[in-house]
Design brief:
183 residues, 2 helices, elongated
Length: 183
């Protein structure tokens, strides 16, 4: 983020947006993003989020994620429809959950999974101008992710069931409803 800020400080004519994804906040995951105007119809978005919390009954959905994305706007940047190409990378430690979106992990009620993931995908989104400096943005991305992980039975300090396992996933890789402040 500091490198991005230094780049932005040197470029007088570029617009910059700071954003937060409300869907991440709904899962108790603090997050922040920076979007930098590159050209009249192109931007670079770099978003990151994490969840360090352990919940009651030893439930956990701990994770961190970074998602850089190149965007092409159909009209002008920061307004209207856009198409994007994104990457994703992160780590996770989750378990003792009775629900997980998109049915990615089986047996989360009785197992814990700890590992990392990398992937990429395509995005479609739309940004509504709410005011001179405020936008509301919605987007969905689909693509591929590869995870490598260890599987444990039960809670935090439990028996290792499987080591060096991996999983391939095709489906939703990005979902956001974000408030954006434009400079």
């Amino acid at each position: 983020m500091l490198a991005v800020a230094a780049f932005v400080a040197k470029s007088d004519a570029q617009e910059v947006g700071i954003k937060t994804n409300l869907l991440h906040w709904a899962t108790a995951s603090p997050n922040l993003g920076v979007e930098i105007g590159l050209g009249k119809q192109t931007t670079l978005d770099i978003s990151a989020g994490f969840n360090p919390f352990k919940f009651s009954h030893n439930r956990q959905w701990r994770h961190w994620i970074v998602q850089p994305e190149f965007r092409w706007w159909t009209c002008e940047r920061f307004n209207g429809h856009f198409l994007g190409v994104h990457l994703l990378g992160g780590g996770f430690n989750m378990g003792n959950l009775s629900f997980f979106p998109f049915s990615i992990w089986d047996g989360l009620e009785d197992n814990r999974y700890k590992g990392h993931a990398l992937g990429a995908g395509l995005t479609y989104g739309y940004a509504w101008m709410l005011g001179r400096h405020w936008n509301l943005e919605a987007q969905v991305g689909v693509g591929y992710a590869h995870a490598w992980y260890d599987q444990y039975s039960g809670a935090e300090y439990s028996e290792l069931v499987r080591s060096d396992a991996d999983k391939n996933y095709w489906g939703v890789t990005k979902l956001a409803i974000s408030f954006v402040y434009l400079f």
